[in-house]
Amino acid sequence: MANANIDLNFKHLRYFWMVARVGSIAGAARMLNLAPHSISAQLATFEATLGVTLFRRAGRRLELTEAGERILGHAEEIFALGEQVVEIVRDDGLRRDLPFRIGIPDSMPKSVAHRLIEPALRVDRPGRLVCREAPLSELLGELALRRLDLIIADRAMPAEVGVRGHSTLLAESGLTVFAAPKLVPTLQGTFPAMLDGAPFLLPGQDVAHRAAMLRWFEERQLQPDVIAEFDDSALLKAFGQGGAGLFAAPTMIEPYVRAQYGVMRLGEMAAVRTRVYAITTERRLSHLAMKAILDNASPDDDAAGGAGQP
Question: How confident is the model over 93-121, as pLDDT tens digits?
């Protein structure tokens, strides 16, 4: 029997809650940015404290026992109440400097993120804006732990993550291909044939539209000479500015790219869609900064870059 004088450890409760939602210790460890053995040890301590078994193994996943199901229901209520407390503070304006915390994945073009986030600074009493950059998997863990209010990402929340949340499309456009002026005379033919054999800078594996770009090349029997790959979009553009190779960027920011990097527009991969999503947990949409971002977003942004080509 469990000791009647239980001192509940809320850190252990949160670990239990995360494992229950994700379905595995390894998955919860990734979300919490902790070692799996640490989560396992904390769970064992939690079970010993309560005097009950919370999980049973079902193949590669963990399933809740009857006791675990009952405790999970209360844990959900506890963390939902904690979220409501934060919202009450925000809604009543009790703290003017309460930060609004936004996560931005490494693969996200920073100029796109700036364009979408900037309206949040124009609302009355916006609070302090805090932007954090990290891999999307890490940011989703922070969102699940209520350490972030919003993630601006180039993909919707992955279904396998197991975190309760919502993805809202903020912007969508094709991709435009650019070149430094000194590279243009070396290209043969017209777009898109000129891309065949041309030096090209490719986005990294974590960039959502990379696979669609490669399919676009294959369907048109084009083989650019890929000389480098970049996870960071700003670094990719900097190399493109220096003439290392051609590169693509979202059509929605074409005027910015041409002005900022002094490059020329070659043509558009209109069939390759790049999308930007707002990923949030429930009941976050009432925040003024969030509403400003959503209200000023333009889901179809192709018009920003001029006429498209297939």
Answer: 554 556 788 999 988 888 899 888 888 88
288 close to 124: Cβ distance less than 8 angstroms: yes
Helix (H, G, I), strand (E, B) or coil at 108: coil
3-state SS class at 45 = helix
Residues in the chain: 310
Q: Which of 67, 201, 57 is CA-nearest to residue 40?
A: 57
Alpha helices in the chain (DSSP H): 10-22, 25-32, 36-50, 66-92, 110-117, 136-144, 210-219, 233-241, 254-261, 288-296
> What are the residues facing 300 on neighbouring strands?
172
CB-based contacts of 189: which residues, under 8 Å, 6+ apart? none
Does a cis peptide bond (omega within 30 degrees of 0) precede residue 192?
yes
Q: Which residue has the tokens 């934060």?
A: 86
Rounded Cα–Cα distance for residues 250 and 255 (Å) = 10
Give the number of other Cβ atoms within 10 Å of residue 37's Cβ: 10
CA distance 108 to 152: 8
Partners of 176 in beta bridges: 249, 268
**Highest mean pLDDT: which range of 18-22, 78-82, 97-101:** 18-22
Q: What is the band of 219 on the pLDDT scale with cuts at 50, 70, 90? A: very high
Query: 246-249 long-range CB contacts below 8 Å, 24 or more apart?
Result: 246/177, 246/178, 246/179, 246/183, 246/195, 246/198, 246/199, 246/200, 246/201, 247/177, 247/178, 247/200, 247/201, 248/175, 248/176, 248/177, 248/178, 248/203, 248/213, 248/272, 249/109, 249/175, 249/176, 249/178
Token pair in block for residue 135 = 């891999």
Reduced DSSP (H G I as helix, E B as strand, rest coil) percent helix, strand, coil of the chain, to 5: 45, 25, 35
Q: What is the mean pLDDT of residues 156-166?
A: 73
Whether this model's pTM surpasses 0.70: no
